[in-house]
Design goal:
Radius of gyration: 20 Å
Distance between the termini: 50 Å
Shape: globular
Structural class: mainly alpha
Number of helices: 9
Helix content: over 70%
Number of domains: 2
Number of strands: 0
Largest sheet: none
Oligomer: single chain
Length: 229
Amino acid sequence: MVSRREIPLIVWLIWAALVAEITVSIIGRSWPSLMISMITLILTWLPIAYSDRFGIKIPIRFATTAVIFIFATLFLGEVGDFYERFWWWDVILHTGSALAFGIVGFVLIFMLFEGDRFAAPPFALAFLSFCVAMAIGGVWEIFEFAMDQAFGLNMQKSGLIDTMWDLIVDALGALTAAITGYYYLKEPSEPGALRSWITSFIDKNRDHFKKLENKKSREIPEEGSERGD
């Protein structure tokens, strides 16, 4: 688990809000709110607790984004009733999560090739990252269905129509992330907000990208020799 100093203030505030809601729910005997708050607290703790386990170091921005998404979906969406109050709440969450999952899918697939850009064409890696993001989106829809059936929630709202629009939005976000990954492989030095997420993951896990690092180290002398000539 990351040290306490590394955990952003927003994560501490989210945890404090959940603990407060749990306390209020117990006092008021609001069992549905208590259940959702406790599940949310556990799920928001997991990304932080396991951010450096299993031989992969997850950048704190990735873990923080996961915490915010879980909190916004389960707690604000269900307990705060944001899905009913704001029609765009679900769209924003699914778009943002698809972008994040697409980037995660890309860096994980990229890591399987040990950072070797020539182990597979950039298009193939981008396509696989798109598939990973869509798979995660599909699993999330199954989770929503399970929560609705098991606990009487209404995460799927209008059922099939809501699910299909969620998947369409997931596809758009996943496609954006896939295109970002594709151009990162083509021009890794170009700046960009989403590209910086890829760079931060690679910087944290350089041991898994040795081929990429070796390639860069070979390119630097070559560039220097060309200028010297």
